[in-house]
Amino acid sequence: MAPRTTLRLRVVPGATRPGVVGRHGDAWKVRVTAPAEAGKANSAVLAVLAEALDVPRRDLELASGGSSRDKLVALAGLSGETADARLSAAAEASR
Fold first, then answer.
1. What domains appear along the chain, each with residue ranges and CATH number?
2. What is the pLDDT of residues 11-57, one digit of tens each?
3. Does residue 67 contact residue 42 with C-beta atoms inside 8 Å?
4. What is the C-alpha separation between 42 and 67, in angstroms, rounded?
5. Pairing of strands 19-24, 27-31
6. pLDDT of res. 94
7. Closest CA to 9 of 68, 80, 91, 89
C-alpha cells in the first residue's frame, strides 16, 4: 500500500511569485499568485505542491481549510520524510 501523508500549510495568496518559502511553525509556508477567491488560491496551492514534490496533481487533495490560510493537504505516494525533504529543497531553490 502506498504511503499517505498529511501536510500542514500556511498559504499566502496574491504573492508576486509562487513557491514554497520554508517552515512556518509546524506548517510549510506556500506562496501563490492567485487571489483568495472562488477556490483559485486552493487550486494554485495544489499545483505548486505537485511541482515541488514532483508528484501528479491527482495525488494531492485539499483535506481542510478551503477558506482559510491554514490548510491540510492529503498526499498519496510519499512518506512524510520524503515530502519534507522535497519541500525543503524547493524552498532552498526559490531563494
1. 4-93 (3.30.1200.10)
2. 999 999 999 999 999 999 999 999 999 899 999 999 999 999 999 99
3. no
4. 9
5. antiparallel
6. 81
7. 68
7 vs 63: CA distance, rounded Å = 9
Q: Which amino acid is at 81?
A: E
Buried b (16+ CB within 10 A) or exposed e, 25-36: eebbbbbbbbeb
- Average pLDDT of the segment spanning 77-85: 95
Alpha-carbon distances, residue 54 vs 25, 26, 50 (angstroms) = 24, 22, 6
Count CB-CB contacts under 10 A for residue 77: 16
Q: How many other C-beta atoms can be found within 10 angstroms of the C-beta atom of residue 40?
A: 15
What is the per-residue pLDDT for 14? 96
